[in-house]
Each structure stands twice: as structure tokens, then as C-alpha cells.
């Protein structure tokens, strides 16, 4: 027996709806640290948390799916940071300061701008250390920050998508460094307060989007279990203070080679060598690493 057009349309609509729900992002805010207290789950853009009675009340959160931008003022104004899927038992500088929330949806291809073979990119630059102060968000290359009124202003950054090169001079000249996705609370000597150009680049050893390339030889994480803030290293680092990561690493991944991790700057104090592998917890070296160098 043939189904009626109405039934077919109804079944098709239900399928599309269930697929959309399955792929929608979901974020839960909690009024206390450690996922305690009152909670509110969001699945859609919320430009004003005052209306839900949750303005400036969130102290922890869980991003169950999607990528979410949280902002300190209504209408997505003020300082904003993007959070990936994961658990955040404390919000630190955003504690009791979130007023608007929205999911960052993948961009669809369109004309205009440089997209580097279809890859997307997004970086936020901040005028103060610790992702504070005036901010400038980029989605494409900028070869002269004087044109965007942010020359020699950036002191910290958050890379949400892509791998970016920041340079001290216009035209991608001078001191340049590569920044993979992560939070950089201090751009370090040579770039702190001296960034004049930025562009998307291929990650070292990679040749385009996808492909499972790694970002660097070593990854440091500020929380056990490979969570929290991340710092990617490809070369010897005499003082992690320059990257705002001194005494902060509590987990690490070594992708290649053998690396020595030391308690003091300039490879002083107690040092421990880690070969290729994933180290979910650093035990006695947790939150004590100040310098890193490759030994083999």
C-alpha cells in the first residue's frame, strides 16, 4: 500500500529534525564551582542571560557538544572567549561575569578573503596579558595592524581555529612565531606589545586541512587529563615564563623525540626525561616545569 504524501512529508520532517537535534550544541552553566548549585542548559544563542535570571552567576560549566563563545556583557560585547567541548570546574576570570552565550557554528564556504585551501581560522588578540583588555578578532590574514588600529598592541592571544603566525613587523617580517589552537596568556619577549601582522599558515609537517597532522613535538596542558590551557612547543624553551606557562603544566604529550623537563629556568634543578607518549598526570613534576629541551 502506498503511503500518502502527507505521511511521507511528516516522516521526512521528523528525520531532518532529529538529525538537527543530534548535531546541535549543548552547554550547561552552574552557579558554583565544581558543577554545583543552580544549573541552566543552553542549546541556542542567548544574547542576554538577565532574562533567564542567570546573568553574572555562572562559576563552572560543561560544554557537552559544539564550540561556545561566552561574553562578559549582553549582546556578545566586552571580553569573549571560545570554549571547546569539555568540563570546566572553575571559570577563573569569567567567574560570575558571563552575560551572553552563543554557539560558534562552522562557516560555510563563500567568496572573498583568503581561506587557504578551504581551511578556516580564528584568532583573538588582547591588549593585556591574561586575555584581558581591548580585543581584536581575526578570521583572515592581516599584513599591517596599523590598518586595523591594533599595531603593537597585542600582549596575549587565543587561537580558536587554524595555526597562525604572528610577526613583530608589517608584511610578516621581524620576529615571528607560530601559534597552534590554544590560549596564550603572554606572547613572550619579542612579540609582547610588538605584533604588527598575522596570517594563517600550515602546521609544521602538515600540508593542509585535515590529514591528522600534529601541531608540534610537545604539548603541555595546564590540567591533568589533557585539559585546560595548552602550549605547543617545537624547540628548546629556556624559560616558560616567556609563554605564560611557568609552573603550570600538569599533563603532556610527546609526539617525537626525547625531551627533558626541568623545574627551573635554563634547565636547572631537577629534570625528568619523557619519550614519545601521553602523560595524563605528571605526579611530582606537576605544576613545577620551567624549561624544556630536546635531548634526543
Walkthrough of the structure:
The structure is a single chain. The chain contains one helix and 21 strands. The chain is mostly beta strands. It has three domains: 78 residues, Crystallins (Gamma-B Crystallin, domain 1, Sandwich); 80 residues, Gamma-B Crystallin, domain 1; 77 residues, Gamma-B Crystallin, domain 1 (Sandwich), CATH 2.60.20.10. The chain has a four-stranded antiparallel β-sheet with strand order 2-1-3-6, with no helix packed on it. A hairpin with a 3-residue loop joins β4 and β5. The longest helix is centred in the N-terminal third of the chain and has 19 residues.
Q: Mean pLDDT, rounded to whole units?
A: 80
Q: Which blocks of ≥5 consecutive residues have pLDDT under 50?
A: 6-23, 107-117, 204-215
> Architecture of the largest domain, according to CATH?
Sandwich
Main sheet record: 4 strands, antiparallel
Taking Cα atoms only, what radius of gyration do you get, to the nearest Å?
Answer: 21 Å
Query: Could you tell me how far the N terminus lies from the C terminus, measured between alpha carbons in angstroms?
Result: 72 Å
- Tell me the fraction of residues in β-strands, as a range: 35-45%
- Total of helices: 1
Order of helices and strands: HEEEEEEEEEEEEEEEEEEEEE
Helix content: under 10%
Note the overall shape. Answer: globular
Give the tally of structural domains: 3
The CATH class of the largest domain is: Mainly Beta
In CATH, what is the homologous superfamily of the largest domain?
A: Crystallins
Number of strands: 21
- What structural class do the secondary elements suggest? mainly beta
> How is the CATH topology of the largest domain named?
Gamma-B Crystallin, domain 1
What is the topology, as strand order, of the major beta sheet?
Answer: 2-1-3-6
Amino acid at each position: 500500500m502506498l503511503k500518502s504524501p502527507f505521511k511521507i512529508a511528516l516522516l521526512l520532517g521528523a528525520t531532518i529534525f532529529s538529525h538537527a537535534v543530534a548535531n546541535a550544541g549543548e552547554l550547561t552553566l552552574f552557579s558554583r564551582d565544581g558543577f554545583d548549585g543552580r544549573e541552566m542548559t543552553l542549546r541556542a544563542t542567548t544574547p542576554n542571560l538577565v532574562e533567564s535570571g542567570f546573568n553574572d552567576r555562572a562559576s563552572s560549566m560543561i560544554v557537552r557538544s559544539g564550540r561556545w563563545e561566552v561574553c562578559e556583557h549582553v549582546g556578545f560585547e566586552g571580553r569573549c572567549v571560545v570554549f571547546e567541548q569539555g568540563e570546566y570546574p572553575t571559570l577563573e576570570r569569567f567567574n560570575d561575569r558571563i552575560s551572553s552565550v552563543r554557539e560558534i557554528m562552522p562557516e560555510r564556504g563563500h567568496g572573498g578573503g583568503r581561506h587557504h585551501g578551504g581551511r578556516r581560522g580564528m584568532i583573538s588578540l588582547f591588549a593585556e596579558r591574561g586575555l584581558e583588555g581591548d580585543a581584536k578578532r581575526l578570521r583572515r590574514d592581516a599584513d599591517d595592524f596599523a590598518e586595523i588600529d591594533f599595531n603593537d598592541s597585542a600582549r596575549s592571544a587565543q587561537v580558536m581555529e587554524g595555526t597562525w603566525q604572528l610577526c613583530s613587523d608589517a608584511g610578516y617580517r621581524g620576529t615571528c612565531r607560530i601559534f597552534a589552537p590554544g590560549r596564550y596568556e603572554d606572547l613572550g619577549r619579542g612579540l609582547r606589545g610588538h605584533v604588527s601582522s598575522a596570517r594563517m599558515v600550515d602546521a609544521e609537517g602538515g600540508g593542509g586541512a585535515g590529514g591528522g597532522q600534529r601541531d608540534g613535538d610537545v604539548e603541555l596542558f595546564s590540567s591533568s587529563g589533557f585539559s585546560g590551557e595548552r602550549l605547543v612547543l617545537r624547540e628548546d624553551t629556556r624559560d616558560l615564563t616567556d609563554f605564560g606557562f611557568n609552573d603550570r603544566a600538569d599533563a603532556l604529550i610527546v609526539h617525537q623525540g626525547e625531551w627533558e623537563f626541568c623545574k627551573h629556568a635554563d634547565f636547572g634543578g631537577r629534570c625528568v626525561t619523557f619519550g614519545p607518549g601521553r602523560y595524563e598526570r605528571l605526579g611530582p613534576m606537576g605544576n613545577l616545569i620551567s624549561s624544556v629541551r630536546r635531548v634526543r
